[in-house]
Write a structure and sequence with these properties.
Helix content: 55-70%
Strand content: 5-15%
Strand order of the largest sheet: 2-4-5-7-6
Distance between the termini: 94 Å
Structural class: alpha/beta
Largest sheet: 5 strands, mixed
Shape: elongated
Number of strands: 12
Length: about 950
């Protein structure tokens, strides 16, 4: 087994090495998240371009390429925010080169997106789309699921959406921007959501869907205010102004534009700062305020020229054209119109538009061509590697499958052997446990009664001797049967065969039982059609039929029938033994041939011992079959089939069968004794009647004794009579002693009763199980009579002490002493519940013993027994004591109440009865106690 595991481990290591070799090749540089964050923090902490430039140069000198790339990225962003688009483009392009050299995909995508944004600000939209699309394709092909990778994809979509929005392709813009918004939500980016809500709002604005536009702009404003984004808030004000302008509410539009202008006036980001200038110029132009329009157009023109934004210049010249045209200055209007057209053409013409529309297709084609080229370059090496890997993989899989099959096979064999050994161990332990129980049970009677023989009267002596003889005969029979089983196993095939008429032999054997059957008024009949000659072992026939007939007589009541049928069919001999006795349930019948099996509902221990197991052993030894069919209340049939052979040369001696019939022993009748007024009752639950009678004889001189022969009957009788103590066996048919203890402890009627377990199971584990089940004492068979009496007396003394305690404390307010016995939790709960019901019924004026017992789900007799057992008082006395305690409490705490009112509240119909009971209990009248309290 050790070598198998070693080989399996070797195979697994070989597989891992093969996979590592197959997966070898060029891999992108892996930079840890912590390193990337540290460098980002160093560079981002500086907001000055010169400082970041110094950091970049230092990083480059030190060979820290990632730090240099991050520095280029941040410098480009700062330059773009200052509208230095050419410088920003140069920084981001340099960062892209270094990122591609380093092989850092995350930085490559960020550089591409930054360059695309630079081109968008410059109005070169075809180039902007190309870079954003390249960034998006890389993100789509990447398996990186980090935050930065997801953010890069969202930025790419946002850039593409803005480009489509500029060209009026609102469908594609809407698709791209909504994907970007979903990505920002996943990243929980407030700023990203604010930007994309605003962009989608612009789509609705261009479509003249103003209600939706308002909704998205306001969501954007909410997110910008949440994070304090001044630029975003200003852009939202511009968006609000555009909506007011479309609604012809020019004053509100001017107000929103003014707010945005003031917020962006000091910003270095002139690309965004120009927007409110153009918007104000446009609204003043619409209103006809030419002076204001010219003022803002002049500022916008200056800014647009400074940042070289052809897109904004086109808007400014268009407004100049509208303004000059309305003023009648047509030459200036024409010049402005020409300038606007030129600026628009520089931003987008038909050639650029076609190029933008086809850029995505061209990029995809280029990507596919590159992939095909790489595939062709690596095809030959991949085919070779694939072939080698396939061979290696096949060999490894075959070895692994073989090892796995061997491993599973070995495990299955070990598991099967383990289960077989476990079953054998359990059977052996159960077998010896049952034998020990049988021996200890019989020895308990033999030794116990032997010690008590001196001093007994002649009648008692005769009964004791009969019990001792019965138990001794039972032990001898058990030992003989065990020896027979051992002999059959050791002599397999070497039997004392005889040849003769088996039907005649069985007929003579049955005749030995007729006198006993007749005296029991049982009709015993034997039927066979024809004599049957065959080989058989006379001793085995005796044992089989003695056992079956004895069992039938034992369980068949008076005036019942026992039929024995013998016949031949072909080469087989058949025999049926049928009775009209108590019968067995299905589970008991299935286990009938197992040693020491017991029926669950049979008070006479059907199958206890090894008799039927011996019968089964004998039938199997002669290659026959035996089965049982039974039904509770109707009877049982044992069916035997044995193959017929006539090979023995030794003939059966035709003479009378010398058979000593195994007649059922007459069990001692158990009679319950009635208890006197002050006498305790002990319930003995024991399936062996001699043991039960012996325990009863030991205890009957001091206590009344009741009997039950199994756990079910014992539980019913305990609930019915509510004894003061229970003595029970552990191993009983049906409900065993442990289950009986648990049921008693869970029943409110009898959970206060002490329990003594008397059993042959004496291990520490079995003692612990008995105590955990609720037993108060555990006594091993054979037990000492004095020890049993001492345990019973001690447990009953505790009950008497509790009664005395309650008798004293019912009217005494002093605290109990520590040495006094304490109530169990179950007893305390029952008494608390009883007192609660007494108070409730007292308030309703419905208090009497029968009603109280009914509320507690008990009969009046059960309630009387339980209350007397716990308190020593009858139910009426206990109720009176509770009434007196309540009356005293009311007199001491509420002097305003009259004696009549107190009597009524305590359930007395007549005040005179209350006076009499109170004086008898406390020695003073209620008035005297009330005056004493007032004084």
């Amino acid at each position: 087994m050790h070598n198998l595991r070693l080989n399996a481990a070797t195979v697994m290591w070989y597989i891992i090495m093969c996979l590592m070799l197959v997966s070898c090749g060029e891999k992108p540089v892996r930079i840890s998240l912590a390193e990337r964050k540290a460098l980002d923090s160093i560079v981002s902490s500086s907001h000055n371009i010169d400082t970041i430039s110094m950091i970049q140069k230092r990083m480059e000198r030190e060979g820290n390429m990632l730090g240099s790339i991050i520095a280029y990225r941040e410098m480009g962003k700062l330059m773009r925010n200052e509208s230095r688009f050419d410088d920003a483009l140069r920084m981001h392009s340099e960062g892209l080169k270094q990122a591609e050299t380093l092989g850092d995909t995350l930085e490559v995508v960020q550089a591409l997106n930054n360059i695309g944004t630079d081109y968008r600000r410059m109005g070169v939209l075809d180039m902007a789309q190309d870079y954003h699309y390249r960034a998006f394709n890389i993100c789509k092909e990447s398996t990186d699921s980090s935050y930065t990778a997801k953010k890069n994809r969202v930025v790419s979509l946002n850039g593409l959406g803005n480009i489509y929005l500029t060209f009026g392709n609102y469908a594609r813009a809407d698709s791209a921007l909504r994907l970007a918004l979903a990505g920002e939500r996943e990243l929980n980016s407030t700023l990203g959501q604010a930007i994309n809500y605003a962009n989608i709002g612009s789509i609705y604005c261009h479509r003249e869907q103003l209600d939706s536009a308002w909704l998205y702009y306001r969501r954007s404003m909410g997110y910008n205010l949440q994070i304090g984004n001044t630029l975003g808030v200003a852009l939202c004000h511009i968006s609000f102004g555009s909506l007011h302008e479309k609604e012809h509410d020019y004053d509100k539009a001017i107000s929103e534009y003014d707010i945005a202008y003031r917020q962006l006036q000091s910003s270095k980001d002139e690309w965004h700062a120009i927007s409110p200038l153009i918007a104000l110029a446009g609204v003043y132009t619409t209103k006809g305020n030419d002076a204001k329009a010219l003022e803002y157009l002049a500022k916008a023109l200056h800014t647009a020229r400074a940042i070289k934004s052809n897109e904004h210049l086109a808007e400014v010249y268009t407004l100049y054209y509208k303004l000059y045209k309305r003023m009648g200055n047509y030459n200036a209007a024409l010049t402005a119109h020409e300038n606007a057209a030129a600026m628009r053409d520089s931003v987008i013409d038909m050639e650029k538009l076609n190029r933008i529309q086809n850029a995505g297709l061209l990029i995809e084609r280029n990507h596919q061509a590159r992939v095909m080229h790489e595939a062709n370059m690596n095809l030959k090496s991949e085919r070779t590697a694939r072939y080698i890997n396939s061979v290696v993989f096949t060999v490894v899989v075959m070895i692994l499958i073989g090892a796995l099959v061997v491993f599973v096979f070995v495990q299955r064999i070990q598991r099967r052997n383990h289960l077989a050994l476990k079953r054998f161990t359990e059977m052996r332990e159960n077998f010896f446990t049952n034998i020990t129980h049988e021996f200890r049970t019989s020895l308990t009677v033999i030794l116990g009664m032997s010690r008590d023989l001196p001093g007994k009267s002649p009648d008692e002596l005769k009964q004791s001797v009969q019990s001792i003889e019965r138990q001794g005969y039972g032990l001898l029979q058990l030992i003989n049967q065990l020896l027979d089983i051992s002999k059959i196993e050791s002599q397999m095939g070497n039997f004392d065969w005889r040849n003769g008429y088996i039907t005649t032999y069985i007929s003579m054997l049955v005749d030995t039982y007729r006198d006993y059957a007749r005296c029991k008024n049982i009709d015993l009949q034997l039927y066979f059609k024809e004599p049957v000659t065959m080989d058989f072992v006379p001793d085995y026939v005796n044992k089989v039929f003695n056992n079956l007939i004895s069992n039938a007589l034992k369980f068949t009541p008076d005036y019942g029938k026992i039929n024995i049928a013998l016949w031949r069919e072909g080469d087989s001999f058949f025999a049926d033994v049928t009775d009209t006795g108590e019968g067995m349930d299905q589970k008991t019948a299935e286990n009938a041939f197992k040693p020491f099996s017991q029926g669950e509902t049979d008070s006479k221990n059907l199958g206890t011992g090894v008799g039927l197991a011996l019968v089964k052993q004998i039938i199997d030894a002669v290659h026959g079959e035996i089965s049982v069919k039974s039904e509770v209340g109707k009877g049982t049939t044992f069916h035997i089939q044995i193959p017929i052979t006539n090979k023995s040369d030794i003939k059966l001696n035709e003479q009378t069968v010398d058979n000593a019939p195994e007649l059922p022993t007459e069990e001692k009748k158990l009679v319950d004794t009635e208890a006197d007024d002050n006498q305790c009752t002990v319930l003995v639950i024991e399936d062996n009647r001699d043991i039960a009678a012996y325990i009863g004889d030991v205890l009957s001189d001091r206590y009344a004794v009741a009997y039950a022969t199994n756990g079910e009957d014992g539980m019913k009788k305990a609930i019915d009579i509510v004894p003061d103590l229970v003595v029970t066996d552990l191993m009983m048919p049906g409900m065993d002693g442990l289950e009986l203890c648990r049921r008693i402890r869970s029943n409110d009627v009898v959970n206060h009763i002490p329990i003594v377990i008397v059993t042959a199971k004496i291990s520490d584990q079995e003692r612990i199980e008995g105590i955990e089940a609720g037993a108060d004492a555990y006594l091993a068979k054979p037990f000492n009579v004095d020890e049993l009496r001492s345990i019973v007396e001690r447990l009953l003394d505790r009950q008497r002490s509790l009664r005395s305690k309650f008798g004293d404390n019912a009217t005494n307010t002093k605290e109990p002493q520590q040495q006094e016995p304490q109530l169990t939790d179950a007893e305390r709960r029952f008494l608390a519940k009883t007192v609660d019901h007494i108070y409730l019924l007292m308030d309703k004026q419905q208090l009497d013993v029968n009603t109280l017992a009914e509320k507690l789900c008990m009969s009046s007799r059960q309630f009387h027994r339980k209350i007397v057992a716990l308190t020593g008082s009858s139910p009426a006395s206990f109720i009176l004591k509770i009434k007196m305690k309540r009356a005293r409490h009311l007199l001491e705490t509420d002097p305003k109440l009259s004696v009549d009112e107190i009597a009524f509240r305590c359930g007395f119909e007549h005040t005179s009865s209350f006076y009499h009971a109170f004086r008898k209990t406390y020695g003073v009248t209620p008035k005297e106690m009330q005056r004493g309290v007032d004084g």
